[in-house]
């Protein structure tokens, strides 16, 4: 059982949870995820770790209420317990001193991007961050991103905060401004696909995190099977980060579509 020590609401359906998990806090690396379960028969829910406090023995998770399991989690409050939290899992991000990096986070993707930004900064990179979201209330963790970035561009679809436009405009701005050695992109698949295309256009390698396709996170359900560079890979075992140029994006969109339908059905039953 893991106690929730802090809950913060970012927007209507997005919450931050700080959870007691001392061993995970100590050993987690940027890019790692945990599997959370609510109730003995609860579904396994993989969530990327957004931060950790070793002294307090806590980890931070940012959760969007999209299906039944995430709804159950979002209904919990400070002082409540999560049935179990297993991790850290997944391969950590390859952190080295690349030179100048652009870290692009779309919507909730800023949460898993944050530890990557912090680790890249600590490794000596010049870190330029692009935070993008549909509107102002969907721009999350801005202070934390600013703390570890040399420069930040904020883009919103409706222009309610920062500059009006999509994430790729922000990436292009940094590319025009100076030489970029590597791009990291995390967010909705469509955002990562186009971030990758933008990077490719300028011959810059782009790393993407496909964590949103995972279902059980254990290598057993097969939902995260994808063609990467023509080879079949499991995102939860072989990833979650891959070279964006090798990802079969059409297959990714198809798989995510199937998953969404099943989730909606389940949620309806719960609400009935
Ligand atoms: Fe189920 Fe990878 S998430 S096999």
UniProtKB/TrEMBL annotation:
Annotated FAD-binding FR-type domain residues: 1-95
Top-rank taxon, per record: Bacteria
Protein name, entry field: Bifunctional dihydroorotate dehydrogenase B NAD binding subunit/NADPH-dependent glutamate synthase
Section of the entire sequence shown: 1 to 272 of 783
């Amino acid at each position: 059982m893991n106690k929730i020590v802090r809950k913060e609401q970012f927007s209507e359906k997005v919450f931050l949870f700080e959870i007691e998990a001392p061993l995970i806090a100590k050993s987690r690396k940027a890019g790692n995820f945990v599997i959370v379960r609510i109730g003995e028969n609860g579904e396994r829910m993989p969530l990327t770790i957004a931060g950790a406090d070793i002294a307090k023995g806590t980890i931070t998770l940012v959760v969007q209420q999209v299906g039944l399991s995430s709804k159950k989690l979002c209904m919990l409050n400070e002082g409540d317990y999560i049935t179990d939290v297993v991790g850290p899992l997944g391969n950590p991000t390859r952190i080295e001193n690349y030179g100048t990096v652009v870290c692009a986070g779309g919507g909730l993707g800023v949460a898993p991007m944050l530890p990557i930004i912090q680790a890249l900064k600590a490794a000596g990179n010049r870190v330029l961050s692009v935070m993008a979201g549909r509107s102002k209330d969907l721009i999350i963790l801005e202070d934390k991103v600013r703390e570890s970035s040399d420069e930040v561009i904020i883009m919103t679809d409706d222009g309610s905060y920062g500059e009006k436009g999509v994430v790729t405009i922000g990436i292009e701005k940094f590319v025009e401004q100076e030489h970029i050695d590597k791009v990291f992109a995390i967010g909705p698949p469509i955002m990562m696909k186009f971030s990758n295309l933008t990077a490719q256009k300028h011959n810059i390698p782009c790393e993407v995190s496909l964590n949103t396709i995972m279902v059980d996170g254990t290598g057993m359900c097969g939902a995260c099977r994808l063609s990467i560079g023509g080879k079949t890979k499991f995102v939860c075992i072989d990833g979650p980060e891959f070279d964006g140029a090798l990802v079969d994006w059409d297959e990714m969109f198809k798989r995510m579509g199937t998953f969404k339908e099943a989730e909606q059905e389940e949620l309806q039953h719960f609400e009935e």
